[in-house]
Amino acid sequence: MKHVEFFEELNREDVAIAGGKGANLGELTQAGIPVPPGFVITSKTYDQFINETGIFDEIMDILDATDVNNNQELQQAAKDIKKIINETEIPDEIKIVIIEAYNALCRKIGKENAFVAVRSSATAEDLPEASFAGQQDTYLNVKGEADLLKYVRKCWASLFGARAIFYREENNFDHSKVYIAVVVQEMVEAEKAGVMFTVHPSTGEEKILIEAAWGLGEAVVSGTVTPDTIWVDKANGEILDYQVSEKNIMFQKDPEAGRTVKIPVPDDLKKKRVLDDEEIAQLTELGIRIQEHYDFPQDTEWAIESGNVFMLQSRPVTTLGKIAGEEKGEEAERVIITKGLGASPGLASGKVKIIKDTDELDKIQKGDILVTVMTTPDMVPAMKRANGIITDEGGVTCHAAIVSRELGIPCVVGTGDATKILKENKVVTLDGNKGLIYEGKIIEEAPVKEVETAGPTVVQQSILTVTEVKVNVSMPEAAKKASETGADGVGLLRTEHMMLTTGVHPKKFIVEGNEDELIKVLVENILKVADAFYPKSVWYRTLDAPTDEFKSLKGGEGEPYEHNPMLGWRGIRRELDEPEILKAEFKAIKKLHEQGYTNIGIMLPLVQHPDELKKAKEIAREVGLKPQKNIEFGVMVETPAAAMIIEDFIAEGLDFVSFGTNDLTQYTLAIDRNNENVAGLYTEKHPAVLKLIERVINECNKAGVKTSICGQAGSMPSVVEKLVELGITSVSANTDAVATVREVVARVEKKLLLKAARKIMQE
Questions:
Q1: 446 lies in a domain?
Q2: H or E element: which one contains 693?
Q3: Which region among 17-26, 329-338, 621-630 has the lowest average model confidence (pLDDT)?
Q4: Same structural domain for residues 346 and 295?
Q5: In this structure, are 148 and 296 located in the same domain?
Q6: pLDDT tens profile 519-545
Q7: Are 535 and 660 members of one domain?
Q8: pLDDT band (50, 70, 90) for residue 184
Q9: Which is the catalytic residue, given 3, 200, 399, 593?
Q10: Known catalytic residue: 399?
């Protein structure tokens, strides 16, 4: 029996002997990923230890007599078993092999009595089916033979921590058949470290999530510090978002004592960005390589020392798709108490129970909201009873967050002040998607009378397409039905119905000092759509009502007469002349973004010059929105002018364009679409219209700008076929056409793939 295996001798198939952590480190080493060198004390060595020393039966007897749902019993059992293991002498045969391996590692590193990290690695840990992350211990900056043996024993003992015992019971793992290996690895004296998920840990989106802090990674994985949070687009490496946190604590090696110590972060680093763009790019490249190697999304740990990036761990992401059921509530009435980071998705309500010490865990009853500075391993039984978890500290990739997702419990971390602001026994609701804490219980909303729509009953489609199939929404009351189509988002949310149904001209709200009331109307209506589709994107088109539609409203008496309102004072041209209305719309969207509805984008109608886009972005910035940074900004291509100079719009900066083919057709062909005398000449399939669309798609694809269609043509199969062939990013159809359009898109995509494959074969 081999007591020790070096990383170079191990691969992912060696979980039984090296544990999940050890096997993965061996696999990464063999794959050429930069990993600090080390070895694994095998699980068979642990098995020999507990059997030769006669402590196996003693441990099992304690476990058999323990009720794991009784916190006091569980804690005492864990304490007793750990004491037994830590006080039992390691047999000489095992001691000698471990010491020899350590000395060999020191020679390889080129340092006598080198500092090493000693990490537990359970044989049921880091498997795709279940994550035991953080349930066994890690010891850093261990030096010398005596300390190494001491901490190896502590790692063995960690197999019987309270959290680990409880987890195995909950997942039906036999205690007697779970073994533990120990990883001994060169210590990286990290200046900065953290974790990286190769996909969104909750939704599975193809975005890399990196969390970073100063010093050793222990601050991040333990939740001691709220780290910087970075989102990266996997497709192109673009940094989508970088949130700098205030990092007050860091871990590093004490140069004198040689032990890991927790120290304050220097003042000049507390609010400083941890990672530069080059380091983010290196981590992203490594993350992509690791996921491709494993062919499965990975949760990794990393460290940077002297400019060199090292991967310290990789495990499968085990929480994808485990989203707790959400309640629908009266969103407009929600009052936000505090906010943090959404760590485990779902909506949960319950009484606040603030836990300051593990001795208080018994007060957590089924249905409560557990609030604490940071969860610890010993809190898992109480977490299981809770409806939701709220913490002051931590990031979305800390081990506590991972376990919350594993258990399916909504969780918000890194609030900073929840334990101080929230009151004991008060009812709150937490949103683990958006990271928000609301006052009171969010009640189930009454059924809404659905708006009648033409066509057959629509059911959610299971067909997958690369080209997104979105839906047009005019009335917020129809959002639920629209979402049930399985659409990939809302390509057009019309504003007009929201304002017209008030019976009051939007300008009248402004003039009479009732801007807040107008904003409230917009928030309430947009919210219904944004919530129904969250986290899918919703593109809100700013007001585009011709003057004749405003005349009948209170305050509309002064609307000018226009011979052809379709060619008149409407769309962005009107809103730039009356910026107060546009500003109110932007304020409403900003309010929704602050409530976590960041899936809302802005779309400007009837643009004909880039200056209009520039001015609208300036107004958006005035109210606190940041176009192309914290909100998507796009334009409607409805005029030949916009299509002919689309490059200038791209240069000004935008995230997407959407074809309004109804207007684009009538303006290109000089045909009033409402005039029955020329209606027969009106067609979106006219070569001139299609050439304009093709030109825009080509230029946007070159620039990485998304393209879509939201006009009536987006519901016409023959036009959709052409658009997919041209390379459009998405198609937005009417509710009753979504299913048909998706089938058309799928068929065309298959045809294009087949055509490409045949071409390759011919070559």
A1: no
A2: helix 687-703
A3: 329-338
A4: no
A5: no
A6: 999 999 999 999 999 989 999 999 987
A7: yes
A8: very high
A9: 399
A10: yes
